[in-house]
Write a structure and sequence with these properties.
It contains one helix and 25 strands. By secondary structure, it is mainly β.
C-alpha cells in the first residue's frame, strides 16, 4: 500500500552520477494525494540502479532517478525509488532524487517553486483551507489553516438575555453562527416594583424577586370611603329622600335637596272643629306621610246634662231630640255700680247686645264715667258688676260677677257649654 509523507520535509541528496549538489524541494508532482490534516502524500517509486537517468518534465526541468534500497515506506516487495523521504531508505541504500524540478546552474540545482507562491492543501479547522507558501529559498513552508469560520458545525452557544433568560444559537454547515433563538425571559427585572389600583382609590405594590418572578401584592393602602360614582341616599323631611354621589377621589359629596316629601310626619295628628256645639274631630298621618280622613265629631257633654244628651254627631240632645244648635246665652239683667244700692238693669242693654246668642262671651266692665244711668254710688262703696243670664235648652239661670272697681279687673266670663 502507498505511504504518505509530510510536504514540509526537505529532501537533500548528492548525486554521484551528475556530481551536482541537489537542493530538493517538494513540488506539485510529488503531491499524489492530500489528506484532511493538510499533509501531502508522496508515493515511493520502484528502485533502480545507481546510474542517473534524465527525464525532462513538461516544465523543461530535468528529473533524475537514483539508486534506491528497500525502505520501510516502500510498497511491499519493491525497492525505494524516487520521491522517497529520508526514512524511506534502508541501511544499505540511499534515497534517490525523485521528480524534483532542477536546472543546472554553475554546478548547483535551482529550487522548484517560486518565492511567495501558494498552494491549497485541502480543508482544515472550521471550514478553513490549508495553504502552503513557497519561501525565499524556493521550498514550500509548513501549511497554514486559512479562512476558518467562527465555529464548528453543530456547535451551540448560549447567552444571557432579558430577565434572567437565556437564548441559544447553533453553528451552521458553513461554520458561521446562526441567529439566536427565542429568549426564555422571566416576568420582570429583579428589584423592579409594580403598583396597581385596589379598593376605593387605593393602591398596592409588589416587587420582582431574584428569579425574575413577581412577588405577592402587599396590603391595599390609601383607600377612600366610597367607590367613584357610587350613590348614597338618606331619609329627609316627611318620607322624603336626598342623595349624594361619590367623587373621583373616593370621597362623598354633599347631599342634594330633599325630594318626595309628604304632607305630614307618620303618627302626627291634626284636629278641626265640627258640628254646631263646639265639637272636634281628628285625623292621623299614615306611614307614607299622607293624612288619613277625619274621624267622627266629638263634643263635651255639659256636666249638668245627661250622657243621653250627646247625639255623637256634634249636636246635643236637650229637649228629647238632637237640635241643630247648641245652648246659647240669653241675658236676663245686668248692672254695674255700688251693688248694695245699684238697681238692676242699667247694663242689661250693652251686655245683651254683645253676648246674646253666643255659647260663650267675655264682657269688659265699663269705667266709672261710662256707666249709664241709673248709676248708684256712695262713699267707700266699690263699684262692681253682676250679670244674670240663661242658656237655651237649659233650665235655671247663671250669674257672672266682677268685684269692686270692676274696670280694673278682667272681663266677666259667660258660657253655655
Amino acid at each position: 500500500m502507498w505511504k504518505r509523507a509530510v510536504v514540509s520535509i526537505i529532501l537533500i541528496s548528492t548525486s554521484a552520477a551528475s556530481g551536482c549538489e541537489s537542493v530538493l524541494g517538494i513540488d506539485e508532482h510529488q503531491l499524489a494525494a492530500v489528506d484532511n490534516s493538510g499533509a501531502a502524500s508522496v508515493m515511493a517509486g520502484t528502485g533502480g540502479s545507481g546510474a542517473s537517468d534524465r527525464e525532462t518534465d513538461t516544465g523543461g526541468n530535468v528529473t533524475a532517478a537514483g539508486t534506491g534500497g528497500v525502505g520501510p515506506d516502500a510498497e511491499e516487495g519493491g525497492s525505494s525509488g524516487s520521491g522517497a523521504t529520508p526514512n524511506s531508505s534502508d541501511a544499505g541504500g540511499e534515497a534517490g532524487a525523485g521528480h524534483v524540478a532542477c536546472v543546472e546552474d554553475s554546478g548547483r540545482c535551482t529550487p522548484g517553486c517560486t518565492a511567495g507562491a501558494t498552494m491549497e492543501m485541502g480543508p482544515c479547522g472550521n471550514c478553513g483551507t490549508s495553504v502552503a507558501t513557497c519561501g525565499n529559498d524556493g521550498t514550500w513552508g509548513a501549511p497554514a489553516c486559512t479562512k476558518e469560520g467562527e465555529c464548528a458545525p453543530t456547535a451551540t452557544a448560549s447567552a444571557a438575555c432579558g430577565n434572567c433568560g437565556t437564548q441559544t444559537r447553533t453553528c451552521d454547515a458553513t461554520c458561521h453562527w446562526g441567529a439566536y433563538g427565542t429568549c426564555g425571559s422571566g416576568a420582570c427585572s429583579p428589584g423592579a416594583t409594580d403598583t396597581q389600583a385596589c379598593g376605593n382609590c387605593g393602591s398596592h405594590t409588589r416587587t420582582c424577586g431574584a428569579t425574575c418572578n413577581w412577588g405577592t401584592f402587599g396590603a391595599c393602602t390609601g383607600t377612600g370611603v366610597c367607590a367613584p360614582g357610587q350613590s348614597d341616599a338618606q331619609a329627609c323631611g316627611n318620607c322624603g329622600t336626598q342623595t349624594r354621589t361619590c367623587s373621583a377621589s373616593c370621597a362623598w359629596g354633599t347631599f342634594g335637596a330633599c325630594s318626595g316629601s309628604g304632607a305630614c310626619s307618620p303618627g302626627q295628628t291634626s284636629a278641626q272643629g265640627c258640628g254646631s256645639c263646639g265639637g272636634m274631630q281628628t285625623r292621623t298621618c299614615s306611614a307614607s306621610c299622607a293624612w288619613g280622613g277625619f274621624a267622627g265629631c266629638s263634643v263635651s257633654t255639659p256636666s249638668n246634662f245627661g250622657a243621653s244628651c250627646n247625639c255623637g254627631d256634634g249636636t246635643i240632645q236637650c229637649d228629647g231630640s238632637c237640635n241643630a244648635a247648641c245652648p246659647t246665652i240669653s241675658i236676663v239683667t245686668a248692672r254695674e255700680g255700688c251693688l248694695d244700692i245699684q238697681p238692676a238693669g242699667n247694663m242689661t242693654a250693652p251686655v245683651a247686645s254683645m253676648c246674646n246668642g253666643k255659647t260663650s262671651c267675655a264682657f269688659q266692665p265699663y269705667t266709672d264715667s261710662q256707666i249709664p244711668a241709673p248709676h248708684s254710688t256712695r262713699s267707700f262703696c266699690s263699684q262692681g258688676m253682676e250679670i244674670t243670664y240663661t242658656c237655651t235648652y237649659r233650665s235655671g239661670s247663671k250669674v257672672a260677677t266682677v268685684p269692686g272697681d270692676a274696670w280694673d279687673h278682667g272681663p266677666a266670663q259667660l258660657s253655655c257649654p
